[in-house]
Design goal:
There is one protein chain. With 839 residues, the chain is of the alpha/beta class. The protein is built from 24 helices and 35 strands. The chain is 30% helix and 23% strand. The strands form 9 sheets. The protein has a 7-stranded parallel sheet, sandwiched between helices. It has 6 domains: 137-203, Arc Repressor Mutant, subunit A (Orthogonal Bundle); 211-276, Arc Repressor Mutant, subunit A (Orthogonal Bundle), CATH 1.10.10; 295-489, P-loop containing nucleotide triphosphate hydrolases (Rossmann fold, 3-Layer(aba) Sandwich); 491-538 and 604-740, 3-Layer(aba) Sandwich (Rossmann fold); 542-601, no CATH class; 749-833, Ribosomal protein S10 (Alpha-Beta Plaits, 2-Layer Sandwich). Helix 1 (102-114) packs antiparallel against helix 13 and helix 3 crosses helix 5 (185-194). The longest helix has 16 residues, at 760-775. Residues 291-294, 297, 317, 319-325, 452, 488, 659, 661, 697, 701 line the site of adenosine-5'-triphosphate. Zn(2+) 1 binds at residues 546, 549, 590, 593. Residues 585-739 form the Helicase C-terminal domain. It catalyses: ATP + H2O = ADP + phosphate + H(+); Couples ATP hydrolysis with the unwinding of duplex DNA by translocating in the 3'-5' direction.
């Protein structure tokens, strides 16, 4: 018997005729996140009086005709939907309470509010895909030593449930099934749960269900009644450690399932379903031992280890100064204390080498790799593996900042300056460094930011802490500075030779390779040494145009020219759009004037590769860019081939710049530095300096000295000068002065509104309307509205509005809900907080 109007009564009678006090009768409703294919979102449910629900709990709720898993998001006193209260369905039960640890829940909420993103979207970014979709509530027996107990004291429904579960070998049924078989299931369940005879759990959706496989386990080796054949099989099993996959054993022994079955019946072996973890497994590596640190490394390690609780350390180490070794030695004691560590890296391109170093130090089973290129199953399994709380190291890209490690002792962001830590779309447009700062603060653990070329944000947070409000003004804690000014073994940084390509042309050299670079490549070919050739763009060339009429081949869906692509000689010649991926066959004649003279401009990796083959036929090279590393494991394969000396030259794009540690590389060539310098973005110089310094840093990391040859049409550019002299400080000083003068980050803050629509007029009008409303607000400077630099992408027209303001102006920011109301249905609006790409 329930008394329904609990607002009028404080005392409620439950079924056992016991009285208890309803303490929180204010929140009768809960908003839950349902993640169901085609119909996900927030839904409101009534809270049954006997349940206590907290945000972050996993619930089971009725949804249509099904029972689904859901996350409790927010408690409500009143329903926030226009439905008669009796039409609102009830939450069925709490499946797991406290699923999100409170610090983690707080983190998700901070991300949602700082990036103006609905909490569901943040949860979606944090959870592996499809975790809740079609999840099913199940009930299972808790195994007991003494099964002979009498349960006569239980109520009839509880007894019925128990009998059903006991009649089943695995002692496990879906709740839905039990509901159909037993009357008053809830009551019976509550009783059984209370005395700890059963537990309820959420079974993951079908696609993500743990992968099970039959395994054979050795249990008895004393020969009582084995046939010769069976004895052989048992011996194989014993020699292989007493446990093998069923299929493996069948294959090794060329035997049949029935033979194994009879061995199981005789009690020699057990055949069981075991879970196959779909986590990315590394190769078995020889264990390596900690290196003897040099003095700078010692100091850095001591700085980190002295910390007690939250603090931020900027580890500013020149390329090849041994930052990774510091990370490794900082993590070792964390694991020993039973805690876990999180290591974030910019791109998977560099993870194979880095993960290998971690695996070699700590062993395979301590390391998980987590990034978006994993399959859903792999992501799900890796994610569950983290929840167990065993001390471990998770290495991952941006999204791994949400890795649900319960006992976090240290967070490391390697190459912290890298822009791939920022998500442009979809929302939340978070920066993993900002989220890492919050997370370290909430978990009260240190955060180490490592780089040879620290971002201006991090640099400023160290040097001018007291005077400048850094961009992440939410975190107010000192940043400690720890420099590694020298390379390991005092190896010199490689000399950087700047080649003026205008001069080359004047002297009659029309090749894309300067005479210096040609001579250096020849030397590689002759001596069998190794080098890296860096090209700013992938693909063959930036665009194709007609020499007769000047026609440029453009994408039919975007306002950009198509890029020429040819993977290898003889392969089809294609034109590809780098914005929407539209592909067409390269036309034989100009579509405009039918002239056969269509010419490529610019020089992408393909063009450079073809030119190499022509000029240096004996030089073996490997292309390393997003075209050649598309397949899973391709990064590792190509880098291994190169490390094994199968080629003289690694030719590639940005990917090459990040953390490659190949001691045999003596030459680094930059085909054209200019592509990086002339971007119309206030961060272009910073990015160019970082990229070029990182590329240069790949040379001379071993015993042989390195050499860098940098080709450019603007040798006098300040960025080129700074790279030439490895002068971070002078570059930063000049750059910061400019930023301050124009109130750009890290001094001012930016918010970019990106609008897009299929309708060019509608989006322009909307941008205008929003700008008019915003311009009434004196709290910030308004730039635009202006069309994006590529106005149309995939047939959507794009406009943007940039807000620039002092960090103190935060309270005066507009009400984004009102701004969103100005967008008609056909116009989408993304609010990019602290944008890195304004183009
Ligand atoms: N104390 C040490 N003694 C000897 N060798 C070391 C020591 N520390 C690091 N090394 C080795 O020096 C090389 C460069 O170190 P590492 O790759 O860690 O530098 P890094 O600063 O991370 O470089 P980058 O930022 O350029 O990627 C590695 O091969 C590493 O094994
Ligand atoms: Zn033409
Ligand atoms: Zn396109």
């Amino acid at each position: 018997m329930y008394i329904n109007d609990i607002n009028s009564l404080d005392l409620v009678v439950n079924e056992n005729q016991e009285f208890y006090r309803v303490t929180t009768n204010k929140n009768q409703y809960v908003e839950v996140l349902v993640d169901f294919p085609g119909n996900s979102g927030l839904f409101t449910y009534r809270i049954p009086i006997q349940l206590e629900i907290r945000p972050g709990d996993i619930l089971s709720v009725p949804f249509g005709s099904q029972q689904l898993g859901a996350i409790a998001i927010r408690l409500l006193a009143e329903p926030n939907i226009d439905l008669a209260p009796d039409k609102i369905r009830e939450v069925e039960d709490v499946v797991t309470s406290g699923f999100f640890a409170s610090a983690y829940w707080e983190l998700l909420n901070r991300v949602a509010s700082y990036y103006y993103t609905p909490l569901i979207q943040v949860i979606r970014a944090a959870l592996p895909p499809g975790l809740l979709g079609r999840s099913q509530r199940r009930v299972r027996l808790i195994k007991r030593q003494n099964e002979q107990l009498s349960f006569a004291f239980l109520s009839p429904p509880a007894q019925q449930i128990l009998q059903l579960l006991q009649s089943q070998p695995s002692g496990d049924y879906s709740f839905h099934y039990l509901q159909q078989k037993v009357k008053a299931t809830y009551r019976g369940m509550r009783e059984l749960l209370r005395i700890g005879l059963v537990e309820s759990y959420l079974e993951p959706p079908r696609t993500n269900r743990p992968k099970l496989q039959k395994a054979v386990i050795l249990i008895d080796t004393v020969d009582r009644d084995l046939t010769n054949r069976q004895r052989e099989i048992l011996e194989v099993l014993r020699r292989r450690g007493g446990e093998l996959w069923h299929s493996e054993l069948l294959q090794i022994c060329s035997t049949s399932s029935s033979t194994l079955k009879s061995m199981e019946q005789k009690g020699y072996i057990a055949i069981e379903e075991r879970e196959v973890l779909r986590t990315e497994q590394g190769q078995v590596l020889d264990l390596d031992t900690p290196k003897l640190l040099n003095i700078a490394q010692e100091n850095a390690l001591a700085t980190i280890q002295k910390l007690n609780g939250f603090a931020q350390v900027l580890l500013h180490g020149v390329t090849g100064s041994g930052k990774t070794e510091v990370y490794l030695q900082a993590i070792a004691p964390i694991l020993a204390q039973g805690k876990s560590a999180l290591v974030l890296v910019p791109e998977i391109g560099l993870t194979p080498q880095l993960t290998d170093r971690f695996r070699a130090r700590f062993g395979n089973n301590k390391i998980s790799v987590y990034h978006s290129a994993l399959s859903d199953g792999e992501r799900y399994d890796t994610w569950r593996q983290m929840l167990t709380g065993t001390p471990q190291i998770v290495i991952g890209t941006r999204s791994a900042i949400f890795a649900p490690l319960p006992n976090l002792g240290l967070i490391i962001l390697d190459e912290e300056h890298d822009s791939s830590f920022k998500q442009d779309s979809p929302i939340p447009t978070y920066h993993a460094r900002t989220v890492a700062q919050w997370r370290a603060e909430l978990e009260n653990c240190p955060l180490v930011l490592g780089s040879a070329t620290p971002s201006l944000e991090s640099w400023v947070s160290v040097s001018q802490q007291s005077t400048v409000n850094s961009q992440q003004s939410t975190v107010n804690s000192p940043t400690l500075y720890s420099p590694l000014p020298e390379r390991i073994n005092s190896r010199p940084l490689p000399p950087v030779e700047i080649i003026d390509m205008r001069q080359e042309l004047q002297d009659g050299n029309r090749s894309i390779f300067s005479r210096s670079l040609q001579e250096a490549l020849q030397h590689l070919e002759q001596t069998g040494r190794q080098g890296i050739l860096f090209i700013h763009r992938r693909g063959h060339s930036t665009f194709v145009s007609c020499r007769s009429c000047g026609y440029v081949v453009e994408c039919p869906h975007c306002d950009v020219s198509l890029a020429y692509h040819q993977t290898e000689a003889g392969a089809p010649q294609l034109l590809r759009c780098h914005y929407c991926n539209y592909v067409s066959v390269h036309p034989k004649h100009c579509p405009e004037c039918s002239s056969p003279y269509l010419k490529f401009f610019g020089s992408g990796t393909q063009r450079v590769a073809q030119e190499l083959s022509r000029q240096f036929p004996g030089l073996k090279y490997i292309r390393f860019d997003s075209d050649t590393t598309r397949n899973k494991g391709a990064h590792r394969t190509l880098l291994t081939q190169f490390a094994n000396g199968e080629a003289n030259l690694l030719v590639g794009t940005q990917m090459l710049t990040k953390g490659l540690d190949l001691p045999q590389v003596t030459l680094v060539g930059v085909v054209a530095a200019d592509g990086l310098l002339n971007l119309s973005d206030y961060r272009a110089s910073e990015r160019a300096f970082q990229t070029l310094t990182q590329v240069a840093g790949r040379a001379g990391r071993g015993d042989d000295p390195g050499r860098v040859i940098m080709q450019t049409y603007t040798p006098e550019h300040p960025v080129i000068e700074a790279v030439k002299y490895h002068n971070y400080q002078s570059f930063v000083k000049a750059e910061l002065e400019q930023r301050q003068a124009l109130n750009y980050p890290p001094y001012g803050r930016l918010i970019l509104l990106r609008l897009s629509s299929f309708d060019p007029i509608q989006v322009q009008n909307t941008a205008g309307a929003i700008a008019t409303v915003l311009s009434a607000n004196p709290g910030f400077e308004l730039l635009g509205p202006a069309p994006a630099s590529v106005m149309r992408v995939a047939n959507r027209y794009r406009w943007q509005i940039l807000l620039k303001f002092a960090p103190e102006a935060l309270p005066q920011l507009p009400d984004w809900d009102e701004v969103r109301l100005l967008c008609p249905d056909g116009v989408s609006l993304t609010i990019d907080v602290d944008p890195l790409n304004i183009m």
